[in-house]
């Protein structure tokens, strides 16, 4: 028995198999990590495109904070309004749920995400995880616009997507689903005509 154990300890048969299996395991982990990183980058790009789409819609349609659309006799064009989909409220002014819905679901007003024509796309038509994310819209007075009886505001309109859950291909199987989130993504445009609906 002692001789058999000594022979086993000093034998090199099978060492190539062990070394190869360790290298293959390392290559599989490296390939899987590369795929996960590429997919995460793809999702981040989708979130950026959704934020840009939302900012375009928000800059050219009824504001989520209703009082901005009725800005007449404006004497001070410096103001701030922060509206959140989560709380369904704005920091000042009244929250308009239909305006927020238009930003998220698009001008078609169907309330669903999916393929549609380019002109009727909303944020979730561009990036399906928008429904699960938190959408914030901010209107910050730029100091531009007109004052007086025909006054109108030309604010900077920012749309932010935050807490977007990052989906993985392989890591979701081992319990990472909805644990990791993308960093907040924001797009800002100058408000063009906040009364054209």
Describe the structure.
- It is a single chain.
- This protein is an alpha+beta fold and 197 residues long.
- The protein has one domain.
- It contains four helices and seven strands, in the order ααββααβββββ.
- It has helices at residues 2-10, 15-60, 97-105, 123-126, and strands spanning 80-84, 89-90, 134-140, 145-146, 152-153, 156-162, 185-190.
- The strands form two sheets. It has a five-stranded antiparallel beta sheet, covered by helices on one side. The chain has a two-stranded antiparallel ribbon with strand order 4-5.
- A hairpin with a 4-residue loop joins β1 and β2.
- The longest helix is centred in the first third of the chain and has 46 residues, at 15-60.
- The mean pLDDT is 81.
């Amino acid at each position: 028995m002692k001789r058999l154990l000594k022979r086993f300890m000093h034998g090199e048969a099978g060492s190539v198999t062990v070394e190869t299996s360790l290298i293959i395991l390392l290559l599989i982990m490296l390939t899987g990590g590369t795929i996960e990183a590429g997919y995460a980058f793809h999702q981040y790009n989708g979130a950026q495109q959704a934020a840009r789409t939302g900012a375009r819609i928000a800059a050219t349609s009824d504001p989520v904070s209703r009082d901005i659309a009725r800005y007449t006799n404006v004497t001070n064009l410096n103001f701030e309004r922060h509206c959140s989909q989560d709380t369904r409220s704005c920091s000042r002014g009244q929250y308009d749920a239909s305006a927020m819905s238009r930003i998220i679901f698009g001008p078609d007003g169907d309330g669903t995400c999916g393929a549609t024509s380019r002109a009727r796309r909303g944020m979730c038509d561009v990036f399906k995880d928008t429904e699960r994310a938190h959408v914030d819209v901010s209107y910050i007075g730029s100091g531009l616009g007109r004052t007086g009886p025909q006054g109108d505001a030309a604010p900077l309109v920012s749309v932010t997507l935050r807490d977007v859950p990052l989906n993985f291909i392989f890591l979701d199987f081992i319990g990472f689903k909805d644990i990791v989130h993308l960093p907040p993504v924001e797009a800002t445009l100058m408000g063009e005509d906040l009364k054209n609906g």
